[in-house]
Every structure is written in structure tokens, then in C-alpha cells.
Design the sequence.
């Protein structure tokens, strides 16, 4: 079986890879592009550790094929910081100690950034529902939610 | 596995008709990729229909009816400025499925073709009287949503056939719909019971109704006896009790880890009543 050629944009960079049609976008990001921020937790779309955005839409990269990325704009956790300058969400996650083992953190960051782009002033309930697809087995979620709410407040003040 | 991305439904149908072995159509992929990974289903042919023009469109037609492309996602339905005003039950039912991430990809057509009796959008579509266009080697045919699933994981679609459009009727005046499901938590779960109701009023009296139940039989049910229980009534307590009794009587559920036969049978009646009350209030113009 021959591999398929895919040309796509990841964090603003044009990239190309060859993939088997069975390989997921997550496989392609991690194994072909060495972007290992997105994690495989469940592989079935339940845990959100593989969250990325595709054309601005939050999705599980484990539930999308690598070939489907052709011509799309992909954003991953690696694109959130500006060089060494952390995004406000990343700073707040550290400040609030909103992570322990860190496996869910890249997905949480991508999902939370997507929320704040869509809704800069979410209620706590809206934030909890938006992040319901990002499972964390360490923190009990409270610190994550507080970090996101505080980031939203700070970003509203700054803008 | 061969991957195809045809430019038309006729081409997609021809590819499927001529394929050997297991064939799957790919839109949102939220069920297909899980099956692929679990090796429950290993397709030899995967046909991605998202390159076909218009598959993500949500269009209101001149007569007030709606045509949805088969790849229009739950998120796109929820974000649509007016679809949810006409059909809040259908939009809310779709929105109940999975997480934000799943909503970014999942579709009504995928939920229907996956064939789960617990599919949340399907009872809402059945209550709403939604039909689909099925494109096959012999051309197109219109099929009511309730005639697509034939059992858990099974549909009436034959080799080479696929759904190419979803049609929601014009809402019209003095009408409302609602869908409710029971799950033991608030989010990210599969329906233990679901109930959809769509009705129309003349003054305070119900003149038309369609009532559907999910997760209480091998397929989603359209329950005529439920509709008869409330048509002609003002949805008074007597009518609501008759509705609940008819809903419970229609149940043929299984016992499983999510719910017992007795629980599902009882809850079907309760949810049918609650959904009917919401649909009635919406038909009265209340914003619920």
C-alpha cells in the first residue's frame, strides 16, 4: 500500500508528510513532525489529551486522520507560547499549580485557549462544560478552572 | 485500507458499490475512527465525503424547511443564528453528544448511521419528522429517519448507498419541540433513556404531535400511542398520565450497567411528560 502525501500548516509553518491512510493526525503530529505536546490518553475521543484546533475548531487529533489535514490550519500546544514568552494561560497554570503529572495539560491549554478566543468572559459553568472533554486524574479540576477564570479576567483587563 | 475523497455523492456511491470488503463513509469520524482503532471494524475502503461541495452547509429553504449537509457538525448547528429558534429540540439533542472536541466533528448523519439505539440526535429528528436523501447506484430516494436504523449498529442502507442530505421540515406557527435524556451525571455520557416530542397547537389544544423514545428498544421508536394520548388535549394532567403510560408501554429495553428494564420503563414515561411540557411551552412562544 502506498502512502499519501499531505501538505498542511501547523502553528503557521507549512509542513509535509507521507502517511498511511489509517494513521491519525495525532500519530502524524507526534511521529512525523516530532510535535509530541499532544498526548494519546484514550485514543477514542474521551480524554482530550490530544486536543488541537483545525481551522480554528477544537477537535481530538486522535479522531481525525492524518490525510484529512490536507490544506488545513492546525494549531497545537507548541504554538501557544511566543518563543520563551509564555501565554497568560501557561503562566496562570503554573501560578495556580493547575497540573501534577502534566499529561492532560497540553490538551487543557489548547482547549482553554480556544474557549477564551470564542468567549473572553465565560462563567465558571461555561468553562467547566467547555473543558468537560479534558479529563484530569490528578488535580480535581478546581485549580485548572481557577487558572482559566483568572487568565480570562487578566486578558480582559489587558485588552 | 484505500482512502478516497470523491467530489460527488454519485461518485461516492459508485466507489462503495464497486468496493470489495468492508466499506465505511467518513464525515466527522467520531465513531468510525474509534471502530478503526479498536479493530472492531477494519474497513478496506474508506470514503471521505467532506470534499463534496456543500456538505457542511446549513440552509433554510424558501418554504421554511431546512437542508443540512451531511458533514455539518454539532458545533455548526449550535452556532447557527436561527436553526435553534425553529428546532431547539433537534439542536439541543445534537449538542448533548460528547465534549466540545466531539461537537467540532460529529454530525447528525453519523449519529444516525452508527445505528445506536441510544443516539441522542435520532429521537429528536424522529419527533421533528426529519427525512434524509439516500443516494445509491439506482439514484436518490427520500427516507424517514425512523426507517434508517434496523437494530443496534444496523441500518436499512444497502451496498453503495449513503445519506447525502438531511431535511428538517418547516417549523410553522404555534409549534415547538424538545428532547431530554437521562444520564447519571451532567455531561459526557450515553443516554439511559431519551425522549423527543414535537407538537403543534391551535389555541391551547394540541393538534399535531410526534413522540419518540431512545435507548429503550433495539431502535429509536416513534410511538403513535403517545401522540394520540396528547392530540386533542391541552396537555392537562390526564393527558400527561396517558402519555407516560403509553411511553412506558412502548418500551422493550434491556438490562445493562447503565439501567435496568424497570428503571428505563419508568423513566421513559417521566421524560416523555417533561419533554412534552417543554415543547408545549415553546409552542406557546415561551423561550425555554
Sequence:
Amino acid at each position: 500500500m502506498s502512502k499519501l502525501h499531505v501538505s498542511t500548516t501547523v502553528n503557521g509553518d507549512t509542513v509535509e508528510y507521507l502517511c498511511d491512510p489509517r494513521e491519525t493526525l495525532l500519530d502524524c503530529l507526534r511521529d512525523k513532525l516530532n510535535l509530541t505536546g499532544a498526548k494519546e490518553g484514550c485514543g477514542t475521543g474521551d480524554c482530550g489529551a490530544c486536543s488541537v484546533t483545525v481551522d480554528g475548531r477544537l477537535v481530538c487529533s486522535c479522531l481525525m486522520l492524518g490525510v484529512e489535514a490536507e490544506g488545513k490550519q492546525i494549531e497545537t500546544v507548541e504554538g501557544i507560547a511566543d518563543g520563551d514568552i509564555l501565554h497568560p494561560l501557561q503562566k496562570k497554570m503554573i501560578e495556580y499549580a493547575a497540573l501534577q503529572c502534566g499529561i492532560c495539560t497540553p490538551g487543557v491549554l489548547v482547549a482553554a485557549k480556544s474557549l477564551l478566543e470564542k468567549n473572553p468572559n465565560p462563567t465558571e459553568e461555561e468553562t467547566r462544560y467547555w473543558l468537560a472533554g479534558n479529563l484530569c486524574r490528578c488535580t480535581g479540576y478546581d485549580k485548572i478552572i481557577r487558572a482559566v477564570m483568572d487568565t480570562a479576567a487578566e486578558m480582559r483587563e489587558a485588552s | 485500507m484505500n482512502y478516497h475523497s470523491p467530489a460527488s455523492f454519485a461518485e461516492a456511491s459508485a466507489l462503495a458499490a464497486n468496493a470489495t470488503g468492508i466499506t465505511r463513509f467518513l464525515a466527522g469520524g467520531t465513531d468510525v475512527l474509534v471502530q478503526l482503532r479498536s479493530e472492531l471494524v477494519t474497513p478496506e475502503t474508506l470514503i471521505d465525503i467532506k470534499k463534496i461541495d456543500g456538505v457542511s452547509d446549513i440552509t433554510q429553504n424558501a418554504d421554511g424547511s431546512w437542508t443540512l449537509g451531511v458533514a455539518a457538525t454539532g458545533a455548526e448547528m449550535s452556532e447557527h443564528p436561527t436553526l435553534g429558534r425553529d428546532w431547539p429540540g433537534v439542536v439541543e439533542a445534537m449538542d448533548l453528544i460528547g465534549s466540545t472536541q466531539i461537537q467540532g466533528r460529529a454530525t447528525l448523519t453519523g449519529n444516525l448511521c452508527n445505528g445506536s439505539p441510544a443516539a441522542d440526535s435520532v429521537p429528536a429528528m424522529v419527533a421533528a419528522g426529519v427525512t434524509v436523501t439516500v443516494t445509491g447506484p439506482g439514484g436518490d430516494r427520500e427516507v424517514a429517519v425512523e426507517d434508517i436504523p434496523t437494530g443496534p449498529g444496523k441500518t436499512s442502507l444497502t451496498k453503495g448507498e449513503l445519506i447525502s442530505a438531511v431535511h428538517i421540515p418547516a417549523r410553522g406557527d404555534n409549534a415547538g419541540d424538545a428532547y431530554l435524556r437521562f444520564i447519571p451525571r451532567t455531561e459526557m455520557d450515553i443516554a439511559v433513556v431519551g425522549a423527543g416530542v414535537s407538537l403543534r397547537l391551535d389555541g391551547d389544544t394540541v393538534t399535531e404531535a410526534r413522540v419518540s423514545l431512545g435507548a429503550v428498544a433495539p431502535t429509536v421508536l416513534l410511538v403513535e400511542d403517545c401522540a394520540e394520548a396528547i392530540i386533542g388535549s391541552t396537555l392537562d394532567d390526564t393527558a400527561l398520565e396517558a402519555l407516560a403510560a403509553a411511553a412506558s408501554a412502548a418500551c422493550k429495553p434491556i438490562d445493562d450497567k447503565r439501567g435496568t428494564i424497570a428503571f428505563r420503563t419508568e423513566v421513559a414515561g417521566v421524560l416523555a411528560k417533561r419533554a412534552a411540557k417543554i415543547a408545549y411551552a415553546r409552542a406557546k412562544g415561551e423561550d425555554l
Observations:
- Chain A touches chain B through 32 residues (CB under 8 Å).
